[in-house]
Amino acid sequence: MSKPLLLVLGDQLSLSLATLRDAPTDAVIALCEVAEEARYVPHHIHKIGLFMAAMRHFAQALRDKGYNVHYSRIDDADNTQSLITEAERIAIQYGCNEVRVARPGEWRLWNAMQQRQEATLPWRMVEDDRFFTSPDDFANWAKGRKQLRLEYFYREQRKRTGLLMEGDTPAGGKWNFDHDNREPIKATLSFPSLPTHRQDALTQEALTDAKHHFSEHMGSLDNFNLPVTRRQALADLNHFLDHGLADFGRYQDAISDTEPFLYHSRLSAALNIGLLTPHEVCEAAEQHYLAGHAPINAVEGFIRQILGWREYVRGLYWTQMPAYKRENRLGFERELPAFYWNGNTDMRCLQRAIQMTIDNSYAHHIQRLMVTGNFALLCGVKPEALCDWYLAVYADACEWVELPNTLGMVLHADGGLMGSKPYCASGKYIDKMSDHCQHCRYSPKQVTGPKACPFNSLYWHFLETNAEQLNRNPRMKLIYGSLSRMKDEKRDAMRLQAEQFLDSLPTSQGYGQALHTQGYLSKDTQ
């Protein structure tokens, strides 16, 4: 007779998890804090605190429901500090004869678990069905298609779920209202303040342990305010619906010099660890539209991010791995700029995006794509370095969602599998969408010279350097036409400006090294 150990991972904190449904009465449920998962990239202290506090609360919720729960804390004397060996140790301790687990969020773990399926203590994998689609669903949709474009996938998702549908037609008469969602920042805007989550004894203890064991990681827990229980996550959802959703659409691409959250939901971390389901979030947003509380452009744009983009990148990740992670079609080789770890740059947009990341383990999607991402693209940062950074610094970063967004969307390293063109831009884009440039020593209107915005010369340098691969792209035809019409003297000056900047750009292979070289770490904290 089977007595399973049901392993619940830190991003699977849902009572609806497949492994928990119909669990045998003698099953043991295990949750494990292990140093290996906290350190394989140097995760932000907010992210570590979120996982530890949320896991401990979820374990308590399971005990309250009568489950037999074993919880491995980070400082337990017998903790092996590795997820696979810790689960097997617990299984043997309780006399379990197999380990059951839902599909993890990383191919790295999935592959390690697959390797154990024929072991003396076998692992049994089940599908994580908390999403709208499974990897098999996506593979079936992708079969025979020359291009895996989000828009077509998203339309089928809308039809299949009925979300924002009026019979066979989309609500509002269009599938996509993105054209209405590109308004820049305005000085007259006021933004909702976030709810403050009370930290009970369990949360405080978890944060204390995170600080004790991972104090050298980015960030400070003094301003930690992420939801660590389902009740807190629902409070964030309701707050967004009531105070952010109506204006989210118009200003979703805007960037503020002072406000990190604007009208954004900040729900992705709670969604990605399982405190909220994508179904309930999309349905709640749809109800706000139907009740007349939010316009179609805002609700459609929000639902597209979850029903469309979130499902699309997950499907792409699981159907393309592990080869996808090795893609580097543009041949980038530069290490990460050192200031990505500390914000020590005089480029205002980058300094603010990175400082907000250090402060909150959060930056919204345009800061990630068009500021830190765009700069890394223009500088030719190698995918491995940038992907590890995004995975480390953001509380919502699980590899299944982070890797396609970074490698494919930001760096165009997959040869256009995800995006039909690179998301590259000069300083003009940032000047249009933000209020950064008025605070910056550089001018977005100058291309060369000591006050010229580095984005400008880097933009043209990137296009010139990668012309062989990009100039045949029909969506790049106009911009390469502009480049070809430039006088040689102008092109030479821009090239020299960009190369001098790149030659003087300090890079770093890791967080500790960057802080040490910048004087941020003393010897006794390393």
TrEMBL record:
* Superkingdom as given in the UniProt entry: Bacteria
Q: Which InterPro entries does its entry note?
A: Crypto/Photolyase_FAD-like_sf (IPR036134), PhrB-like (IPR007357), Rossmann-like_a/b/a_fold (IPR014729), UV-DNA_repair_photolyase (IPR052551)
Gene3D superfamilies named among the record's database cross-references: 1.25.40.80, Deoxyribodipyrimidine photolyase-related, DNA Cyclobutane Dipyrimidine Photolyase, subunit A, domain 3, HUPs
The name this protein carries in UniProt is Cryptochrome/photolyase family protein
- The protein's organism comes out as Vreelandella zhaodongensis (Halomonas zhaodongensis)
**What taxonomic ancestry is recorded?**
Bacteria, Pseudomonadati, Pseudomonadota, Gammaproteobacteria, Oceanospirillales
